[in-house]
Amino acid sequence: MNRSDLFPKRLIVLSLILMFIAGTSQALHSGVGGNVNNEGDVTIAGCTCHASEPDNSVTIVLDGVPYHYSGSTAYEMKIQLIGGPDILAGSQTGGFSIRVSSGTLSAAEGYESLVQNWEGDDETLTHTSSGSETADRTWNIIWNSPQEGGNEIVTIWLVGNSVNGDQIPSALDRWNRLSVTLEEGEDNGDTRTIFSGNGDIDPPAPLDEEVDLHHMGAKLRAHWLGLLGFGAVILVIIFCGLFLRYGFSRHYEGRSNLLRLRIKHLRRGDQL
């Protein structure tokens, strides 16, 4: 068998290997979805090409979830990953995949270049290549609920992967997942935050902001007027105290001297 006969066979084998890799490792910086390692959809099975088990040191958050949904209504939600490897500027920081059992998913306004439907499936949404480089591992999405009157119980599955930016799937990356079910009903506008993880989240540092006093307006004037009024009251109290102490003391001292003089004359038998 000559080399020309071996080349097509090698090409076929190489193609099969690439197809196997593509079919079992559907986690890329350009998006994640589909069947992972023949374990099911990535939103349910998880990012097992990075690590075999979820890690609760990564808190995955889904904010803006209604308690009940109204039919044919658009709900904006925010996905955020907190924890995991340190964020390195200019490199991949993380990604996600979200899937709904009913309704459609799309990018929220301003996030059109950061999220996309996975292979045209409007029930699945994931990050784009630029969306994998977000500085805060945050993405805003839109869920359009199913038509009114269907009384469907909708399940949302979400998986998020916090990566170290070396573009090598490994246990150095951390991922977690969550799911939530929604029923159709009266929507009063209240929303909730669903999260999965150990909840060990550092609170945001207080903003170091300075306010120009000239921009405080009426509040500043009222503040100073209150201080002036308080100062005036203190001065009045001090003045009254000094007046009582030194103003009437002379009068009392004179009466005391007159009384001593009267007693002196009475002792001598004189009449005043």
Summed up, what is this model?
28% of the residues lie in helices and 28% in strands. It has helices at residues 3-24, 42-45, 218-268; strands at residues 27-28, 31-32, 59-66, 68-69, 74-82, 94-100, 104-107, 115-117, 124-127, 138-144, 153-162, 174-184, 191-196. A hairpin with a 2-residue loop joins strand 1 (27-28) and strand 2.
Chain-wise SSE layout:
Elements: H1 3-24, E1 27-28, E2 31-32, H2 42-45, E3 59-66, E4 68-69, E5 74-82, E6 94-100, E7 104-107, E8 115-117, E9 124-127, E10 138-144, E11 153-162, E12 174-184, E13 191-196, H3 218-268
Parallel strand pairs: 4-12
Antiparallel strand pairs: 1-2, 3-5, 3-13, 5-10, 6-9, 6-11, 7-10, 8-9, 11-12
Structure description:
The protein has 272 residues and is an alpha+beta fold. The chain folds into two domains: 23-196, Immunoglobulins (Immunoglobulin-like); 220-267. It is 28% helix and 28% strand. The protein has three helices and 13 strands; from the N terminus they run αββαβββββββββββα. A hairpin with a 6-residue loop joins β8 and β9. The N and C termini lie far apart (157 Å).
**CATH class type of the largest domain:** Mainly Beta
Mean pLDDT: 79
- Low-confidence blocks of residues: 13-27
How can the largest sheet be summarized? 6 strands, mixed
Descriptive terms for the model:
single chain, 272 residues, alpha+beta, Immunoglobulin-like, 2 domains, five-stranded antiparallel β-sheet, 28% strand
